[in-house]
Structure to design on (671 residues):
């Protein structure tokens, strides 16, 4: 009854409204609009009909144009532990780069909704890859990591997959974005001509941006942070902006002021040691080989050949003494033998350009004496720059009739080593497939069985053969999460399990090094053994934070540099004046020259230039440099050492990239 009563009441009210003056005026206005000739013309247009039929899709497109980049930005930030709101120029950079990605994908696929789906999935893959890479090695994703996929796949089974709170939130945001996008009624343009026009505009915009971004100083407008700590840089800049910033580092530019005349002046200023003629006297007229257009300096010397030692150089994976940052206590000493060596021994701190990963960069700096300071930040020269024969410690010793061999007890294709080693002058390369009787600790060949292969090479060489061997180990490779491996070294109350596992591995490395030294102590042939670490390990952040907290300014260059120090040792099985060569802190690019000094082997002019540079700048890495007064500098600072840094840059550029005017005899053994 109530329902019927309410219905009748509503009909009565409606009838009364229809008789009101206001209602009649509304009907009159509506009829006037509908009968207006202009309105009729508008209604007859295709645009009106399209808008009437597709207004929901248009509203969805406008909404998605803002919604999709916003979602991508926020889940990307969670995957790099980045800020969710920061300086406006950096925020603009992230959204601009996201729109560039979307436009690029649209130009390829030509369908709007599909473009958004691909943009979501692609950036999510980038984000999740950054999360796991940062977890595994302690440094974020960089564009050239794509060249290391094969390396990543080989070590992936050794890592324990962990999903942080931020990664979980990022994934939830990604899924939310996909679900909302799915509900949006977005239709692609049906008109093929219009669609082609839009795609051409997209291509034009993307191409114009890329040209401006990679050929001008456009990036400076975004005020992106340049930080020694890669994770902090990504945190401050945002994931997408950081990746675009890093991609600029793939481009090599000729240094300002670089020319052959300047190089010749630098060459003439190099002071050759007293055992050889001065370079000024030995440089004759510059000769140009017309077939190669290569500038050649003719250098002469009257030195006679003399007895030289075998040289064994070992770059030990993640070998480091973390007490260099600050003291900490353990239940037992983790490198007792290393610390006990004093006679016929040179040791010190070795400053490197990397932390936690990217081993081949330290390897490259050691072998070539080049510096990461003059190649784009965090690139990998082995993968990007070595495609033809290159000068190295191996090529120098090969010119002195040394046999040259390399060992890497893992996969030969890792970081392109199977291609690079022959180009650096190594005659043989032994790896996981060709080494004998390898034993394993966790997933990796141990140091002891690797060293036994070095001994085998020594025992199989001919009587008068001088041997140079470079060995790269794998035993101490991260991550340090193998629950089946018992930790014998414990820090504090055992609150750092990854650190305990790492230090226990270092103890095994120390024992294995003792085995190698003991063997060559009983060998009559003069032999030098060098061992150094490529970088510090990525263990618990909390442990590093605790060590660094003892410094007054934890963000200073001097403090951060503590994480870029590993030990080096040079031991000989014969007497020599080791006090003469004690260098204490040096950077890895100087180590090969120091070894040749101890071995009594004459060096190239390039290495003698570095000897003079080391007196003024004992440490130079990809992060900055320290002068002789122990003051750290960034490369963008103008200092009294800037011209020396510039000269080094010119020589390295000529060495690596100037194939038309290379001053070859600066980098070769004098003959």
């Amino acid at each position: 009854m109530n329902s019927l009563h309410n219905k009748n009441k509503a009909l009565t009210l409606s009838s009364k409204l229809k008789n009101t003056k206001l209602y009649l005026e509304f009907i009159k206005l509506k009829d006037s609009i509908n009968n207006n000739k202009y309105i009729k013309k508008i209604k007859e247009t295709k645009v009106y009909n399209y808008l009437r039929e597709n207004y929901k899709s248009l509203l969805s497109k406008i909404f998605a144009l803002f919604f999709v980049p916003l979602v991508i930005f926020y889940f990307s930030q969670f995957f790099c532990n980045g800020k969710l709101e920061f300086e406006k120029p950096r925020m603009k950079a992230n959204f601009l780069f996201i729109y560039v990605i979307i436009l690029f994908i649209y130009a390829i696929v030509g369908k709007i909704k599909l473009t958004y789906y691909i943009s979501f999935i692609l950036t999510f893959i980038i984000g999740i890859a950054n999360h796991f890479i940062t977890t595994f090695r302690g440094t974020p994703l960089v564009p050239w990591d794509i060249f290391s996929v094969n390396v990543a796949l080989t070590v992936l089974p050794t890592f324990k997959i962990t999903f942080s709170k931020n990664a979980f939130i990022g994934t939830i945001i990604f899924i939310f974005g996909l679900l909302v996008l799915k509900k949006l009624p977005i239709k692609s343009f049906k008109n093929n001509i219009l669609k082609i026009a839009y795609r051409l505009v997209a291509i034009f915009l993307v191409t114009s941006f890329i040209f401006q971004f990679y050929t001008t100083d456009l990036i400076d407008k975004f005020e992106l942070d340049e930080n020694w700590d890669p994770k902090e840089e990504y945190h401050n800049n945002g994931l997408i902006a950081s990746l675009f910033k890093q991609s600029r580092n793939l481009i090599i530019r000729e240094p300002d002021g670089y020319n052959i005349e300047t190089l010749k002046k630098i060459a003439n200023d190099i002071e050759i040691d007293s055992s050889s003629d001065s370079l000024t006297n030995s440089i004759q007229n510059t000769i140009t080989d017309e077939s190669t257009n290569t500038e050649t300096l003719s250098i002469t010397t009257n030195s006679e050949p003399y007895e030289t030692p075998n040289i064994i150089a070992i770059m030990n994976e993640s070998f480091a003494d973390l007490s260099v940052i600050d003291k900490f206590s353990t239940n037992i000493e983790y490198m007792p033998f290393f610390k006990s060596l004093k006679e016929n021994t040179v040791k010190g701190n070795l400053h490197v350009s990397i932390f936690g990963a990217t081993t081949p960069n330290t390897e490259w700096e050691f072998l070539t004496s080049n510096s990461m300071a003059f190649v784009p930040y965090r690139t990998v020269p082995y993968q990007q720059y070595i495609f033809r024969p290159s000068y190295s410690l191996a090529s120098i010793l090969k010119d002195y009739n040394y046999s040259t061999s390399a060992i890497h007890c893992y996969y030969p294709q890792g970081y392109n080593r199977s291609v690079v080693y022959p180009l650096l002058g190594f005659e043989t390369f032994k790896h996981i497939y060709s080494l004998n009787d390898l034993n394993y600790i966790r997933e990796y060949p141990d140091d002891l069985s690797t060293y036994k292969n070095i001994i085998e090479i020594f025992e199989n060489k001919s009587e008068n053969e001088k041997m140079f061997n470079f060995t790269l180990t794998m035993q101490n490779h991260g991550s340090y999460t193998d629950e089946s491996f018992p930790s014998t070294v414990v820090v504090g109350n055992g609150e750092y399990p990854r650190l305990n596992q790492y230090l226990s591995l270092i103890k095994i490395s120390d024992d294995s090094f003792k085995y190698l030294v003991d063997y060559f102590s009983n060998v009559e042939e003069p032999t030098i053994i060098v061992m150094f670490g490529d970088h510090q390990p990525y263990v618990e952040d909390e442990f590093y934070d605790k060590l660094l907290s003892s410094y007054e300014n934890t963000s200073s260059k001097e403090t951060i540099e503590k994480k870029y120090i590993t030990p080096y040792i040079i031991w000989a099985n014969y007497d020599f004046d080791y006090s003469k060569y004690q260098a204490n802190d040096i950077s890895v690019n100087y180590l090969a020259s120091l070894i040749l000094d101890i071995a009594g082997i004459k060096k190239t002019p390039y290495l003698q230039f570095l000897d003079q540079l080391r007196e003024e700048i004992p440490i130079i890495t990809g992060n900055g440099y320290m002068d002789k007064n122990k003051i750290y500098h960034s490369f963008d600072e103008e200092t009294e050492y800037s011209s020396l840094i510039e000269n080094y840059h010119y020589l390295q550029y000529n060495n690596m990239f100037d194939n038309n005017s290379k001053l070859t005899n600066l980098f070769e053994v004098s003959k």
